[in-house]
Structure formats: structure tokens, C-alpha cells
Design brief:
Layout lengths: L2 H11 L7 H24 L1 H21 L4 E9 L3 H19 L8 H13 L1 H11 L2 H5 L1 E5 L4 E4 L4 E2 L4 E2 L13 H11 E6 L4 E8 L2 H38 L5 H23 L5 E5 L12 H34 L1
Antiparallel strand pairs: 1-7, 1-8, 2-3, 4-5, 6-7
Length: about 325
């Protein structure tokens, strides 16, 4: 009985408000007005947009045409299969412990040697020897473009005088007019790529340069040098191993140990044989580097489109933002 009055009093507090449909459409009207004002502002400044876009488009054409073409040459390599590696792997399973005590490595698999060769190609020491041997520093650090008619590199005369073979670039200390190996290595790392294709087990070596002939030559030299370096390493290791094993044979009278040592010498002799007869010691060339007829980059159409779109965007932005800035500036003065 006491609850009913309370219920009635609550009902009496409820107020009903009649909503006008125009209230819902007012926001849409404001949005339409804003969009209309935005379009009117853009339309009033259409000549600014057109002129700015034309300037950016013309500038982008000149800029794109001034960019030198860059060519990319690449070679596909396969790890060289070796009976020597198979023989050493077999011995490793039987006598790996004893051989390791003797300081002889029997466990070098083909994949390990491939990984080692890739890392050596990326090393500073390999690059330093590569630069000194083939004298690529001017083509790397001073080349400006390639003259396809004469097949000659055009050098930047503010950096290097080709006729006198003299570096004249103006640099701050501690750098010298002639680029250092460290400086050249940083530049070369932008042009040189070596990667192992995990799905097929192949290795791809590529080089970019203004001249397609230089790019191809550099790839060929890299492959030649890495095979030579790996060959020299294995040859030196095998000769030292044979010398050591022969000295151990003279120290033992146990027939089984002598037999093992002779087998180890035989495998090291095979390594020496492969280093003498194989030019493609660690990598066999499957698809050699070519002098490319088509450029790798830049894509000049993309450059022109990008600059033109920037011009359109800047002109529209200036048309829309300048009135707002002027209004804010005038309000700040008051």
C-alpha cells in the first residue's frame, strides 16, 4: 500500500520532449556546407593548383632525365660437389675424435664451406684485397655516368682526374682526397649483394653500376677471387696436415694408428689435388653474369608521377591552410 504513491510520484517527474526532425538533419547540412566551402576554395585556387602542378611536372621531367641509368649484373652459383668432401665426411664418422686431437678438420660439409665462402665475400679483408688487385677505386668512388656510345666511364672531375690518375676531392680531416678502404667498402656494400637461396641451395651474386660492362666484370672477378681464396686456404691447411701426419707416423709403431694416419694423408692429398685441378673450387657457375641491355633503375615514370602528385598535394594544402593561418594571425593581432 505504501509503494503506490511513490510510483505515482516518479511517473509525475517524467517529462516528454518532442523532437523536431530538422535537428537530425542540421549536422548533415553543416557537413554539406563545409564540403561546399572546401570545394569553392579549391575551385577559386584552381590556377594556383594548375601552375604549381605544371612546374613540379616539368621539374620532375628534367630531374628524371638527369638521373643516370644503373645496370645490374648477377650470376647464379652452385656449391661445388666434391668427392673430397664425401671422403672426409666418411672418415669423420669413424675417426673424427682422433683427427680432432691431431688438429685436423674432417667435418667440413658442403653447406658449411658455402656459408664460409659467403661470409668471406662480405668481409673487409676480402674487399680490401679485391680493390688492390683489380684497382676498382675510381670506377667505384668517382664514376658519374656511363657513355654508351664510347663505352667509357665518365668521372666526376671534382673528385678524380682520369688522365693523371689523381684524386683531388675536397674532404675534411681525417679523410684524404683518395678514399680509404673503409669508405670505399661502405659504398661498395650498397652495390654488391650475395645471398643464399634456401629453397634451391644456390647462391646469387649481383653488382650494380652505371656501366653494364663494369657490373659484369666485377661479378666475374668476385667469383674468381672467392674460388681462389677458398682454394688457397684449403691448400695451406692440407699441406700443414700432411706434414703433421707424416711426423706422427714416425712416432708410432702401432699398425692401426699408422693405417688411420695414412688414410688421413690420402684424404688431404685429394684436397691438394682438387686445389690444383679445379678453377671453380667452391662455386660452380650455373648462370653467368651478362652485360645487361636494360637498365635496373631508376624508374623515371614513377619519379615523374611522384613529383607531380607532390605538386598537386602542396598546392591544395597551401590553398586550404593559408586562409586559416591568415585568420589566426589577424585574431592574434587583435
Amino acid at each position: 500500500m505504501t509503494d503506490k504513491p511513490n510510483i505515482q510520484s516518479d511517473n509525475e517527474k517524467i517529462q516528454y520532449v518532442a523532437l523536431n526532425p530538422e535537428m537530425f538533419s542540421s549536422n548533415n547540412v553543416d557537413d554539406e556546407i563545409d564540403l561546399r566551402e572546401l570545394w569553392n576554395a579549391i575551385w577559386k585556387g584552381k590556377w594556383i593548383i594548375i601552375i604549381t602542378t605544371m612546374i613540379f611536372a616539368a621539374a620532375s621531367v628534367f630531374y628524371a632525365l638527369s638521373l643516370p641509368n644503373i645496370y645490374k649484373s648477377e650470376a647464379l652459383l652452385a656449391p661445388a660437389s666434391s668427392e673430397q668432401q664425401a671422403g672426409l665426411s666418411a672418415l669423420s664418422g669413424q675417426f673424427g675424435g682422433l683427427a680432432s686431437l691431431a688438429g685436423i678438420n674432417l667435418g667440413g660439409t658442403k653447406s658449411d664451406k658455402t656459408t664460409l665462402a659467403i661470409e668471406i665475400m662480405k668481409s673487409r679483408d676480402f674487399f680490401a684485397n679485391y680493390v688492390r688487385k683489380h684497382e676498382i677505386l675510381p670506377d667505384l668512388m668517382a664514376a658519374k655516368e656511363w657513355d654508351s656510345n664510347t663505352n667509357q666511364i665518365v668521372y666526376d672531375e671534382e673528385l678524380y682526374l682520369f688522365d693523371s690518375k689523381k684524386w683531388i676531392r675536397d674532404v675534411d680531416t681525417p679523410r684524404l682526397p683518395k678514399p680509404s678502404i673503409q669508405e670505399a667498402g661502405r659504398e661498395f656494400s650498397k652495390l654488391f649483394t650475395v645471398e643464399k637461396l634456401a629453397d634451391v641451395g644456390m647462391v646469387k651474386v649481383s653488382v650494380e653500376h652505371y656501366s653494364p660492362y663494369v657490373a659484369k666484370q666485377w661479378v666475374d672477378w668476385i667469383i674468381e677471387d672467392i674460388n681462389f681464396v677458398m682454394k688457397a686456404r684449403d691448400k695451406m691447411e692440407a699441406e700443414k696436415s700432411i706434414s703433421y701426419l707424416q711426423s706422427q707416423i714416425e712416432k708410432t709403431n702401432i699398425v692401426e694408428q699408422q693405417s688411420l694416419l695414412y688414410q688421413l694423408i690420402e684424404e688431404q692429398a685429394k684436397t691438394l689435388m682438387f686445389t690444383e685441378i679445379r678453377d671453380e673450387y667452391v662455386f660452380k657457375t650455373i648462370d653467368p653474369a651478362l652485360v645487361q641491355e636494360l637498365k635496373h633503375k631508376p624508374n623515371k615514370i614513377i619519379v615523374i608521377i611522384a613529383f607531380t602528385m607532390i605538386g598537386i598535394g602542396l598546392s591544395i594544402f597551401s590553398i586550404l591552410i593559408l586562409p586559416i593561418l591568415k585568420k589566426l594571425f589577424s585574431q592574434a593581432n587583435y
